[in-house]
Amino acid sequence: MLAWDVRLQRRYGFYAVYVVLTMVFVLGLRTLGPELRTDAAVLLIVIDPTVLGFYFIASLVLFEKEEGVLDALVVSPLGDHGYLASKVITLSLLAVVAATLVAVLGHGSTSGLAILVVGVALSASLFVLVGFVAVARFDSINEYFISAVGWGSILFLPLFGYIGVVETRLFYLLPAQPTLVLVKGGFQPLAAWQMAYGIGYLLLGNTVAYVWARRTFRQHIVRGGDPGSQFGRDEGPGSRQRTDRGWLASHSPVIGLALADLRNWVRDPMLLIAAVGPLVLAAIIRFGATTVADMATPVLVLSSYYPVIAGAMAVFGPSLYGFIVGMFVLEDREQGVLSAYRVSPLSTRGYLLYRGVTAYALSLLATLPALIAIGLVPVSPAVLIGTAVVGALGGPVLTLAFGTLASNSIEGLALSKLVNVVVLVPAVVIAVVPEPLQFAIGVLPTYWPVKLFVAGTAGEPIWPLYLFVGVVTHLFALVWLGRRFAQRDD
Fold it and tell me: Distance between CA 25 and CA 27 in Å, rounded?
C-alpha cells in the first residue's frame, strides 16, 4: 500500500507541485528582512505544507472509491488499519520534507529543527485523519472541497491569534494552536509547558482522530453510509419536478447543464457559503487591516501597500469560481458527460462557451462588490468597474486551465496549489519589484487587474492602457486554452 500511494501521488503531480511550491516559498522568505522572516516562515509552514494532507487525502479517497479500490480493501488483509496508516505515512512524509526545506533554505536559522519536524509530522498526520473523516461520506471532489472551507474556518482560527487580530485562550482547544507553538519552536526557544502542550495535544488528537477515522471507514466505506443524506442525491419526493426538468434538459443541453449546476449550488450549503466568500474576505481585510498595520508599524508601513492588497481582490473571486467550475469540467470528463456533449447539438464549443460564461458571470458578481466593500483606498467608479471587468476574465481562464492541464480531479486538486501562486505572485511582484522589471510578470493575466487598480488609485492616466492589455492577455489565454481543450477531448 505504501508503494501504491507513493506511485499514485507521484503520477498525479503531488511531488512535482511541491518542488515548485517549495522553491517559491524559499525565494519568498529570502526576500524578507530578518525581523519578518520568522513569523512569515511559521505562518507559511502551518498554512501550506503542514495541512497538505487534509486536501490531498480527499482526491485519493474519491479516486479509490470510483476505481473500486476501497471495496477490495474491505475484504483484504490490509484492512482499515493499513489503509489509514499508509495514507498518514506518505502524506506526512511529503509535508515534513517540504516544511524542512522551507525552514532550512528559506529561513536559515533553525536551532530547534527537531522540534519543528516533530510538530509538522504530528500535525500532518492529524490533518490527514481529519481530512479522511471529512471526505468519506462524499462521492465527488466538488461535493467535498467546498465543505472543507467550513472545517478550515474552525480548525485554523488560531492563525488570527498568532497575528494578533483576536486573542483568546479558547484557541488552545483547536489543532492549529499546538502546530503554531511547535513550528515556532523550530526557530525560537520554547518553554517546557509549551513543549508538553504541543506534543501532548497532537498525540492525543491523533489517537482520537484515528479512532474517528476507523469508525467513519466502517460507516461510509464498509456499510456505504446513508446515500439519502449525501450531496446531490435526490431520492425523496418531487419526482414530478425531476421529470419536468428532464424534459427541458432533453430539449436543450444548455438548460440541462444549468439545472444540474443550479441543483448543486442550492443543495450544498457550503457552495452557497463560497458564493459570498470574496465579500466576507473583503470585510475581514477592511476591518482587520488597521489592526495588522498598527502591529507591523515598527518594521513595516503596511498602509503603503493598501492599493495592492485591495487590488488583489480582483483576482481572488475569479480564482475561486475558476476552481469550482473547473472541477465541474473535470467531473464531467470523468463521468463521460463531455463525450456525450461532443456528439450532441451542444458540441464541445458550446460546452466551453457555457462553462466560460458561467465562470465569468459568477466572477464578476463576486469581484465588483468585494472591491467596493474592501474600501482601503479611494477609487473612481471607472477604475472600479474596469478592474472588475478585467479581473473576472480570470474565472473562465482558470476553468479552461483546469480542464486542459488536468486529466481528472486528483490532478486538478494538485494543480490548484499552483494556481494560488499564479494568483498571488503578481500582487507581490507589484508590491516589491520596481518598474519596468515588474512588467516581466505580465505574461500572467492575473497581473493586469491588480496593476490597473493600483495605477488607477494613484491617479495615473495610463490605467486604461493596462485595462486594454489585460483584456487582450486574458483573451489570448482563453483562445489558446480553448483550442488545447478541444484537441484533448476530440
Answer: 6
